[in-house]
Amino acid sequence: MPKIEFAEVVWVFSSYAGVFLLHTFRRSVPITKPSFRLQKYIVVLCHLSIPVMEICRYQLRAIHGTPEPSGGDFLLCVLHSLTALTLTSRLRVGDRSIARPTYQTITAMRFCFSAAAYLTGDPFLYRASIHVINGFVYPRIGIKLLNRMRILPSYSAVYTASNFVASMLSIHETQFSFGPHAYLAIFAAIVVLNRYVAERDRPQFTNDTSMQRSGLGWDYRTAATKGSGL
Length: 230
Fold this sequence. Notes:
Layout: H1 3-28, H2 42-62, H3 71-89, H4 96-120, H5 123-132, H6 138-149, H7 155-173, H8 179-201, H9 204-214, H10 220-228
Helix pairs in contact: 2-3, 3-4, 4-5, 4-7, 4-8, 6-7, 7-8
Keywords: Membrane, Transmembrane, Transmembrane helix
Transmembrane segments: 178-197
């Protein structure tokens, strides 16, 4: 195994081990607490364990040569994407107008890499789909560093910035041409789509209230007052 690949393996597994021990098993999945209930964290545990399985499969096969994608790899990616989107819909931390599209974008790009790798049998695209997984663990490292440096004013800002930068970094690691540019374009498209869906699903009375406040709507209370002579 070349030195650069060995260093990559050491970095990946050490960073994952550090994040799991220092953050995940203390906050996200507090398995040591007496109040821990497996049913409550089943989606999170699947979200964490599936990419670890993918990375192990990839690195073990990389010992004997260039790994090639299989149907099992694509299935694991699909399952991980479903857990990621499920958790994103429940997201309550950070600036959700940015944090949610960040997760949605990196999930969409990873799914596309994995699907294309499976359909074409391209080892490069398969490797890219594995590297994107880092975008789900790098944020914890960024959050820890930014909290220590105290650059941003709140945890919400730290969480949002760390996720966005980590996602960009993981896309850059894929070595896919114009990968970061594609990430920004997809991110912008998802932001617009999310806003469109939110506006479309907003209750009608909310829109009516906004129109009244802006002077564009018919205020029935004003009309009633004028009609009664009060």
